[in-house]
Amino acid sequence: MSRLFSELKEILYKEEIQKKGSYSAKDYVNLVVPSKSVKLKSLLEFWYTGDSLLKGDFVTNKTLHKYRFIKTANLSEDRFLLNYDTVELCKPVGKVNLRDEDILLAKDGGANGLGEACMYLSDNDSEGDYICGEILGLRCKDGVDKYYVLAVLKSKYFKEYLNAVTPEGSTLRHSKLLALEFDLPLSKWKEKMEYISYQTQIIIKMEKELKNKIACINSLFETELKIKEKSNYTYYPKISEIKEVGRMDTGAYLSEYVHLTNIIKSYKGGYEYILKENMTPGRTPKDYIYTNKKNKNVVLWITPKNLSPMELDFETYIHTEEHNNIKSNSIVISGIRYLGNGFYIEEGIDALCNQNTIIINH
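The structure corresponding to this sequence follows.
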């Protein structure tokens, strides 16, 4: 527990319990307000929330619609910018409130999602972005250091505050607009605040550069592959192929799959199959204890939920008696959910992954 909370010694009067109507110790914890602070809402020019979409508002065709629907899952603990890897596309459904450098905050959420924050920056991949109703958009006033504000909202200090003031829920917890009442701490040393702001700007710049480099790598592959791409490709399996596979209900006969496979086989640099003995499924330990804190007694726990195309969105750990099931210099890819997302296991990383992942060794 941080210094955000004062220590509760005892409750002397039953009237206090009757007044609050609760026996939970959490309801009697007092928040310690920093000596120099300002209300978050006093720093804002404008705040807004999103809406819920109907099933028919979502689309899969990227050529017809390039509007994105941002959910709390797109706000990651280890990123200062949005994670678009799992973003969904939608039809234009109204006014777009988002502006560059607005801060997005998960006001509702379950587990560790409550209080996640990031900065919004538009790009050329979208005609417009919408946010869900569980996200609060914050636009700082002119002259307010938005990078310092973001740094504080990304801290454990703010998360502990929001966790303390938000009512408990069975799965999803709703903080409503309680975040606006947060007493944002201000250092008495101006240089300290400037340093925090500067470091935050460096992190954002590095994340933008990383995104651009990944896009460049993908473009190099796609440029060569698209040279051989044909429109309206249709494929019908031969009887001999069906007999060889031994079944008919398989995606191996889909025109799109066959077309993409043929493109890869004609790739200028050649191609190579991964041997079956070098691919194994992950395995969930029989007994384990889940934790978010890293120490010498835990191992990295990898599931499709925290896998993005080339990295881990966030790190989780488990205590278990079972041995590491991933060798060094291997790749773990998602077998469900966001298929193909993967992570490279470097030398010296102790990790386990569940049965919904595939491990590629050597």
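The two ends are 44 Å apart (CA to CA).
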